[in-house]
């Protein structure tokens, strides 16, 4: 995820914020690290080269060539488990782990494959399913009623013109189903226009559909709590996100007091809850050199912290500001 992928016969390019991720997970030599979002294996490779043992997880079957490459090069220190990072503690199977890295969002590998339907820049089926099973983006676009569709685009894509886009979609699909990426992208551009120099008008809508199709916010929250259950005191968690909604969830997960209501000075003081994460690092963003090498890194943010001795919490969405579709627009 977040990795720029070379053709299959070449090594993948460096994933975003690589040096910063490695620093956040130190010390690495001899440590067992879970790469919960394997993608093309950029983080896994760097971790292995630094002397770590890696358990990698991914739900996309198309990662197989990258898995086999690392498996052949690091047979004694690399293991791959197919599945979702939301259940990473189960994937580890009780083995001790010193660190977890999560790179949230769609990978460049998926964006660059037109047949996966993630990109509005490439003609392909309107799919967007990371696991290549279940409900597709086309299913949502062609079956949700206008209000539900508008709410989805607003909540998950922060698309202010969601109602107008939804109205255009519903009118268009009455004549024929919307089945391709470029068909939908042209329709959105027709609905809200495009100003020179602005991002493509379909950007936010495609983000919203992808998040909905893959239940990405649910996966993120479940994965964060799975890492909390898995990591012992002193264990390290590094999370790279690619838009503000994800970053806000991670920020509040590490420091829930910042997401809660302010305590009135007129009320008796209450004890602060136990902190599950300590040494919460400031958010890290890519520098100019990295942005010059990989413009897709521009929205990435790294947050990291160290596990305390406090027992893991039960999974809860409270206080994490997870967007909800119901009544959003």
UniProtKB/TrEMBL annotation:
It is found in: Cytoplasm. One of its GO terms (molecular function) is rRNA (cytosine-N4-)-methyltransferase activity. Its EC number is 2.1.1.199. Keywords: Cytoplasm, Methyltransferase, rRNA processing, S-adenosyl-L-methionine, Transferase. S-adenosyl-L-methionine binds at residues 41-43, 58, 85, 103, 110. The keyword Methyltransferase applies. One of its GO terms (biological process) is rRNA base methylation. One of its GO terms (cellular component) is cytoplasm. It catalyses: cytidine(1402) in 16S rRNA + S-adenosyl-L-methionine = N(4)-methylcytidine(1402) in 16S rRNA + S-adenosyl-L-homocysteine + H(+). Its main location: cytoplasm. Specifically methylates the N4 position of cytidine in position 1402 (C1402) of 16S rRNA. Belongs to the methyltransferase superfamily. RsmH family. This is Ribosomal RNA small subunit methyltransferase H. The lineage of its organism: Bacteria, Pseudomonadati, Pseudomonadota, Alphaproteobacteria, Hyphomicrobiales. The gene is rsmH.
């Amino acid at each position: 995820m977040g990795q720029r992928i070379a053709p299959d016969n070449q090594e993948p390019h460096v994933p975003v914020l690589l040096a910063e991720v490695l620093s956040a997970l130190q010390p690495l030599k001899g440590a067992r690290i879970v790469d919960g979002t394997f993608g093309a294996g950029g983080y896994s490779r760097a971790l292995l080269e630094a002397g770590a043992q890696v358990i990698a997880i991914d739900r996309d079957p198309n990662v197989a060539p990258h898995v086999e490459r690392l498996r052949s090069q690091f047979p004694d220190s690399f293991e791959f488990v197919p599945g979702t990072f939301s259940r990473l503690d189960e994937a580890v199977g009780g083995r001790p782990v010193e660190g977890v890295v999560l790179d949230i969002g769609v990978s460049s590998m998926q964006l660059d494959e037109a047949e996966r339907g993630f990109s509005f820049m490439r003609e392909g089926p309107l799919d967007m399913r990371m696991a290549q099973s279940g409900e597709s983006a086309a299913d949502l676009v062609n079956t949700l009623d206008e209000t539900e569709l508008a709410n989805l685009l607003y909540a998950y894509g922060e698309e202010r013109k969601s109602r107008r886009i939804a109205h255009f979609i519903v009118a268009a699909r009455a004549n024929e189903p919307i089945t391709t990426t470029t068909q939908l992208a042209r329709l959105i551009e027709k609905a809200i226009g495009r100003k020179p120099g602005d991002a493509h008008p379909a950007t936010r809508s495609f983000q919203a559909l992808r998040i909905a199709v893959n239940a990405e916010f649910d996966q993120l929250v479940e994965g964060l709590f799975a890492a909390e259950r898995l990591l012992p005191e002193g264990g390290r968690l590094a999370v790279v996100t690619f838009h503000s909604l994800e970053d806000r969830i991670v920020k509040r997960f590490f420091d829930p007091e910042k997401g809660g209501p302010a305590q009135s000075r007129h009320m008796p003081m209450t004890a602060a809850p136990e902190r599950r994460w300590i040494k919460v690092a400031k958010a890290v963003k890519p520098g100019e050199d990295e942005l010059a090498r990989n413009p897709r890194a521009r929205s990435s943010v790294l947050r990291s912290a160290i596990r305390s001795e406090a027992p893991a919490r039960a999974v809860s969405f409270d206080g994490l500001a997870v967007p909800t579709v119901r009544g959003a627009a």
